[in-house]
């Protein structure tokens, strides 16, 4: 087992560095990659940035880690993150916060929960990184740090060995210096794994690939996009949206139009309800998935004091769990538990699931390609209002300042997810690509969203946007 | 996506309608005059699969040391996910079909949340909202009453925990964590403790016959929770109490009787019965309160987001039905039709009921199967006689503490040849018994014909020469007996006959020998 050190390394990005691999030589075959600390590795600890698992090393590697090792890539270390994936600023971590590498002068957030992964890529500790995205946790830090961040279709990448936050929403995501690196890593790990019961079957992957190929056939070259239809969802410009992010998006839209793409406005009317639905579902599933942390089989164990009541199991567990979980995690567990109680179940959990169906239906209505997961769905080749991909600002602002005092009850941290959660609820592929910042020079991203299984189309359109940006900066 | 959640409410609606039209009336009983009893039973049967329900860990056997059959998934390690074992599903479907259930084409898995030391995940995966089978019926064997089955569902078993109260330590063994269970829920159609016992025994035999479970309460592969309520005859059903942790049919019956008397006493005193969960104290033979309705936990049932719905198509169900081993009543009827007596059939089937099933539902080789093979092309009554009287008799002598048939090493071929030798009179009956005893006592794999030769037991085929010789020798040896016979005490001839048999080492034919003796001794 390689020796590793625990320390906050530059920006607090990597919490564990594999010393044997830290002086890596970049080769065509072997890409240096950081792994978010909620993905299991045998050779390095997996803490999920939590006191609960601070000394935990998994007895097995996650499937994605096995695949990367088999392909000969170099795993340089474990990346800092928000505890158990819960957070949008990477400030809830037992290893301390992650600093956005864009500027050393201002202490700003790298975004969360995969802030460490994004910062590691941005500061060139590695060329790519794995993260997880449940409600925006790859796309948001990618946008704030100015790197590429892909959340693939739900079910495409194996979750075996990925510590569960919310099973119906969790996706392994890929961050990278550019779309090419992201694409290479994605193709290495996007394989069917029988150990993951939620993995999309080979049959369904094939069907989606056909839809995707049809779409790509329409856009012949990067300079001639006359076959491409891009939708701009009108509900994705809430009042909280900062002007710093709107201008760069406008430039991108203009550039695409100049190359022949049709850019149209579309409507996804359920969008305003998506954020609440997401937090109910994610918190409910989190309260369930985190019930296992009791300090008995593994993890932090705090012995109850001698005077404690030990007759009920829950009373014994409470000591470990109160000490082991940070305040944000505790908050979500309590809210999620409430949402599942007999009294609240219908009004919160079931209602949120109904909203989720509406959000899914919204997307299926605007996409030309059919959703192969829905029986009897049809592609809309003749529908003039249907689009191939959606395009929208990745975040409502640039990276927030870390020292901005947050009053209790301040919900602004949650509002950051408002643009990312709809694609999470619908399980769709979405990728944030950095575009030239406007005002305050802090990184800005635009997100491309595709129909389920059309990850390839999202990657190709992302490449086009990247190429546009390269041209602009020349 | 969560349509199955609404389904449960439809189930309840249907039950209420049936409630009005077809509920069995209360049955008067002299033990509690003026009152009637209503009992419903929930059975948890361990599925006899090689591997657990959601992981490919081998299922534990009694000899396995604790915590040696635990995978990262079973111990709820971070990053692990469930994978459904299709063998568990098939064995569950077999049981449900044997109970005449409707197999739901679409069912789903839910999480039942609570904290306990034997539950590493903090939740149990079960089928709360949409079980895979509903609406069956079990016909009781003794009283021929039908008891309706509400549903059958798949769920995970917990580990085992033991608390040492003095040292304030709880020890946990996770070998059983994640093993597959079938929960079989009956409607409250049972009307007496005896019917309850009949229900459980009938269910046990049925589960074993289709290979789904050993159904052994003492060994822990079958657990019962019993719901009991009483009410005055002619009145509406009373409040029910649940009794848990019953370890044998006998204790269950005692517990039910005690609970009935307790509830009747409460009502007679003018009080009302509290809805409670109660345990059973085996030493005191009493039930005692565990928790009340107010303390009942909210399990926060949530559909399991990892597991897709369980789809059971018509073709699949048809195939499982076709391959079902025969049910006990069918086997019984078949054996009786062959001409076997009720007693013989009982013996064969009781032996089989007592033998554990094979893993993964593979066909069991029990006493009935043995009989079927030996009786191929032979007289079934002769075959069954040799098996139930001679073979089992000898085996019980040699292995008094075991199920005699499980200790049997006499092969079908050996048994068949033995029966043939006796039927063709190549050896006598007693000689046959001798050979059988020899085979059993010496664990011999030798074939009976060869052994008969070896042990000089072949019937002598020299006309009457040897027989005459033995008779004369016996007469010579027993002068007092001969005198008694000639004086008119005819029965003493059996003693002489016995000597003849001994001299012939069992090869003489008893009938012929007796006739010859009578001829010699009585006709002069």
From TrEMBL, chain A:
EC number(s) given by UniProt: 6.3.5.7
Pfam families, per database record: Amidase
Q: What class of enzyme is it?
A: ligase
SUPFAM superfamilies for this protein? Amidase signature (AS) enzymes (SSF75304)
Q: Fetch the Gene3D superfamilies from UniProt.
A: Amidase signature (AS) domain
Entry GO terms, CC: glutamyl-tRNA(Gln) amidotransferase complex; mitochondrion
The record's subunit annotation is: Subunit of the heterotrimeric GatCAB amidotransferase (AdT) complex, composed of A, B and C subunits.
UniProt name for this protein: Glutamyl-tRNA(Gln) amidotransferase subunit A, mitochondrial
Q: Which organism is it from?
A: Phlebiopsis gigantea (strain 11061_1 CR5-6)
Q: What is the lineage of its organism?
A: Eukaryota, Fungi, Dikarya, Basidiomycota, Agaricomycotina
From TrEMBL, chain B:
Gene Ontology molecular functions = ATP binding; glutaminyl-tRNA synthase (glutamine-hydrolyzing) activity
Q: What domain of life is recorded for the organism?
A: Eukaryota
A GO biological-process term: mitochondrial translation
Give me the Gene Ontology terms describing cellular component: glutamyl-tRNA(Gln) amidotransferase complex; mitochondrion
| Keywords for this protein | ATP-binding, Ligase, Nucleotide-binding, Protein biosynthesis
Keyword Amino-acid biosynthesis assigned:
no
Pfam families tied to this protein:
GatB_N, GatB_Yqey
Where does the sequence pass through the membrane? none
The reaction(s) catalysed by this protein are: L-glutamyl-tRNA(Gln) + L-glutamine + ATP + H2O = L-glutaminyl-tRNA(Gln) + L-glutamate + ADP + phosphate + H(+)
Q: Does the keyword Cell inner membrane apply?
A: no
Which family does the UniProt entry place this protein in? Belongs to the GatB/GatE family. GatB subfamily.
Q: What name does this protein carry?
A: Asn/Gln amidotransferase domain-containing protein
- Organism, scientific name: Phlebiopsis gigantea (strain 11061_1 CR5-6) (White-rot fungus)
């Amino acid at each position: 087992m390689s020796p590793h050190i625990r320390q906050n390394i530059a920006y607090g990005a990597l919490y564990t560095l594999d010393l044997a691999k830290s002086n890596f030589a970049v080769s065509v075959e072997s890409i240096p990659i950081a792994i978010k600390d909620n993905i299991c590795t045998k050779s390095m600890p997996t803490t999920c940035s939590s006191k609960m698992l601070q000394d935990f090393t998994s007895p097995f590697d996650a499937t994605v880690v096995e695949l990367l090792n088999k392909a000969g890539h170099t795993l340089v270390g474990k990346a800092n993150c928000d505890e158990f994936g819960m957070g949008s600023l990477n400030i809830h971590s037992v290893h301390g916060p992650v600093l956005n590498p864009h500027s050393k002068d201002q202490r700003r957030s790298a975004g969360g929960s995969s802030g460490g992964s994004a910062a590691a890529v941005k500061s060139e500790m590695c060329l790519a990184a794995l993260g997880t995205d449940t409600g925006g946790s790859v796309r948001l830090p990618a946008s704030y740090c100015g790197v590429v961040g892909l959340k693939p279709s739900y079910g495409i990448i194996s979750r075996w060995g990925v510590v569960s936050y919310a099973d119906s929403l969790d996706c392994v995501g890929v961050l990278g210096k550019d779309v090419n690196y992201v694409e290479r890593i994605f193709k290495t790990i996007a394989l069917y794994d029988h150990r993951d019961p939620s993995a999309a079957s080979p049959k369904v992957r094939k069907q989606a690939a056909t839809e995707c190929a049809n779409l790509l056939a329409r856009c012949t070259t990067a300079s001639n996009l006359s076959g491409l239809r891009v939708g701009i969802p009108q509900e994705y410009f809430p009042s909280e949206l900062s002007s710093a992010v709107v201008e760069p998006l406008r430039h991108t839209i203009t550039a695409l139009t100049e190359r022949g793409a049709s850019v149209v406005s579309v409507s996804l009317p359920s969008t305003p309800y998506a954020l609440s639905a997401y937090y109910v579902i994610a918190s409910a599933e989190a309260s369930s998935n985190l019930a296992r942390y009791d300090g008995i089989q593994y993890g932090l164990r705090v012995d109850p004091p001698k005077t404690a009541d030990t007759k009920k199991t829950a009373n014994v567990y409470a000591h470990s769990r109160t000490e082991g979980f940070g305040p944000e995690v505790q908050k979500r567990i309590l809210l999620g538990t409430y949402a599942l109680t007999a009294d609240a179940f219908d009004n919160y959990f079931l209602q949120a699931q109904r909203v989720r169906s509406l959000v899914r239906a919204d997307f299926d209505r605007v996409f030309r390609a059919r959703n192969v997961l829905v029986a009897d769905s049809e592609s809309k080749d003749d529908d003039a209002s249907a689009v191939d991909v959606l395009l929208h600002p990745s975040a409502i602002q640039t990276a927030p300042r870390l020292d901005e005092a947050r009053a209790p009850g301040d919900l602004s941290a949650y509002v950051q997810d408002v643009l990312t959660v709809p694609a999470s609820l619908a399980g769709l592929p979405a990728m944030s690509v950095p575009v030239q910042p406007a005002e305050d020079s802090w990184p800005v991203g635009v997100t491309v969203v595709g129909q389920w299984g059309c990850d390839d189309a999202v990657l190709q359109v992302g490449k086009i946007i990247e190429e546009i940006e390269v041209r602009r900066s020349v | 996506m969560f349509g199955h959640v609404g389904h449960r409410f439809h189930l309840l609606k249907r039950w209420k309608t049936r409630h009005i039209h077809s509920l069995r009336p209360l049955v008067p009983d002299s033990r509690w005059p003026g009152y009637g009893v209503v009992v419903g039973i929930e059975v948890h049967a361990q599925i006899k699969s090689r591997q657990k329900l959601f992981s490919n860990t081998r299922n534990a056997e009694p000899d396995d040391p604790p915590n040696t059959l635990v995978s990262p998934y079973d111990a709820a390690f971070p990053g692990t996910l469930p994978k459904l074992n299709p063998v568990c599903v098939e064995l569950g479907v077999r049981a449900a079909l044997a109970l005449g259930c409707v197999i739901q084409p679409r069912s789903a898995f839910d999480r039942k949340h609570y904290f306990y030391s034997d539950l590493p995940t903090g939740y149990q995966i079960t089928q709360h909202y949409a079980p895979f089978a509903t609406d069956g019926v079990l016909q009781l064997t003794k009283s021929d009453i039908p008891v309706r089955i509400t549903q059958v569902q798949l769920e995970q078993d917990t580990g085992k925990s033991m608390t040492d109260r003095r040292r304030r330590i709880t020890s946990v063994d996770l070998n059983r964590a994640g093993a597959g269970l079938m929960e079989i829920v009956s409607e409250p159609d049972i009307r007496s403790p005896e019917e309850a016992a009949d229900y459980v025994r009938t269910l046990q035999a049925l589960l074993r016959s289709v290979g789904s479970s050993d159904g052994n309460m003492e060994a822990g592969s079958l657990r019962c929770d019993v719901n009991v309520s009483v009410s005055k005859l002619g009145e509406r059903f009373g409040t029910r109490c649940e009794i848990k942790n019953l370890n044998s049919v006998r204790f269950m019956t005692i517990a039910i009787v005690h609970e009935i008397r307790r509830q009747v006493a409460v009502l007679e005193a003018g009080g009302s019965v509290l809805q409670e969960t109660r345990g059973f104290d085996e030493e005191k033979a009493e039930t005692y309160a565990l928790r009340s309705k107010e303390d009942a936990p909210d399990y926060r049932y949530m559909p399991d987001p990892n597991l897709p719905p369980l789809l059971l198509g018509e073709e699949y169900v048809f195939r499982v039905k076709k391959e079902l081993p025969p049910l006990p009543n069918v086997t019984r009827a078949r054996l009786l039709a062959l001409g076997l007596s009720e007693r013989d059939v009982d013996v064969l089937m009781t032996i089989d009921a007592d033998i554990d099933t094979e893993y993964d539902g593979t066909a069991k080789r029990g006493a009935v199967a043995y009989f079927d093979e030996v009786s191929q092309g032979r007289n079934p009554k002769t075959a069954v006689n040799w098996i139930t009287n001679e073979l089992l008799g000898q085996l019980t002598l040699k292995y008094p503490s075991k199920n005699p048939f499980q200790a049997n090493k006499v092969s079908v071929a050996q048994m068949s040849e033995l029966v043939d030798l006796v039927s063709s009179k190549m050896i006598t009956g007693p000689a046959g018994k001798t050979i059988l005893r020899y085979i059993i006592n010496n664990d011999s794999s030798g074939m009976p014909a060869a052994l008969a030769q070896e042990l000089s037991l072949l019937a002598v085929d020299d006309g009457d020469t040897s027989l005459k010789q033995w008779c004369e020798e016996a007469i010579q040896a027993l002068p007092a007996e001969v005198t008694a016979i000639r004086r008119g005490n005819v029965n003493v001839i059996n003693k002489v006959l016995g000597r003849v048999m001994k001299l012939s080492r069992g090869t003489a034919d008893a009938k012929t020998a007796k006739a010859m003796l009578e001829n010699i001794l009585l006709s002069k």
